[in-house]
Amino acid sequence: GKHAGRGCVVPFDPDMLGDERHRRFVERELRAAILMDELELHYQPVFDSATLTVRSHEALVRWRHKVRGTIAPGQFIGVAEQSSLIDRLGEWVLRRACADLPRLKGPVAVNVSPVQLRRAEFAESFADILIETGTSPTRIIVEITENAPLAAGSVEMNNLTTLRAMGVRVAIDDFGAGHASLHYLRDFAFDIIKIDRTYVADFAANPVNAMIVSAVCDIARSLKLEVVAEGIETEEQLQMLVEAGCTALQGYHLGRPQPLVVQQVVCAA
Ligand code: C2E
Ligand code: MG
Ligand code: MG
Ligand code: MG
């Protein structure tokens, strides 16, 4: 990399993630970044599809690296997930989101890694942070990416049940792209379905996608679940997803993830 040697900065190369030394290097840098508050949350608004007003925000983490600039989560979450660093990162994200909450409209959604959810003490430490920051659980949404099947009675499900009993809402993220099973819906383990943006992307081009999304919305309506369509980039997609019955909408067409300073200006306007 251009600064390799002095300061030991090498570029993040996804091909190198399999390299144990590189992984440990990124892990060490990230651990320091968390302690030194070099992470930052950007907030993307989620809109009500009936009124097209902001109803909530999703917190998305960024790493403000002193040399490399802003690094996207896709570049470091995977590394964090290979150690307990993901737990520290998750705690940092929740604390920051709770601190920012008074300046945001509506609830805030935080992404939680399946690795965090596997810890027996997850729900308890989550609750501790809400208490410590004086945050009402009803203003927090937890987004879980369904990249591994969640079994009934598992540690993961117990954590989710504990959070939901407190009033935290739970969303299945990237629905339709992973392992989500209909039993998730049957067992009422979730409150919100976030339809993966691949369905949104070729919604117009592929009529089968449109049928699937409409059918998911029908089921969700009967079960009184919210359906968020994510990744809306065009007015056409927006119109079609409203028509399909999605209750909420998110995507660059409506609002990009922004740091809180910018967000405030938008809210005040
Ligand atoms: P996600 O939770 O599904 O978040 C949505 C991603 O899509 C975000 O990317 C967002 O910036 C992007 N996006 C939003 N609207 C559009 C659109 O209209 N078009 C396109 N092409 N993209 C759009 P981002 O911020 O890079 O995050 C990527 C993933 O990283 C997230 O996917 C989430 O799984 C993970 N992530 C982000 N923040 C955190 C965090 O604090 N903790 C954990 N564990 N994971 C996180
Ligand atoms: Mg998400
Ligand atoms: Mg995701
Ligand atoms: Mg998603």
UniProtKB/TrEMBL annotation:
Keyword terms, alphabetized: Membrane, Transmembrane, Transmembrane helix
Protein name: Bifunctional diguanylate cyclase/phosphodiesterase
Superkingdom: Bacteria
Coiled-coil blocks: none
Span of domain EAL: 23-269
Any GO MF annotation of the entry: cyclic-guanylate-specific phosphodiesterase activity
Transmembrane among keywords: yes
Parent-protein residues present: 244 to 512 of 512
Organism placement in taxonomy: Bacteria, Pseudomonadati, Pseudomonadota, Alphaproteobacteria, Hyphomicrobiales
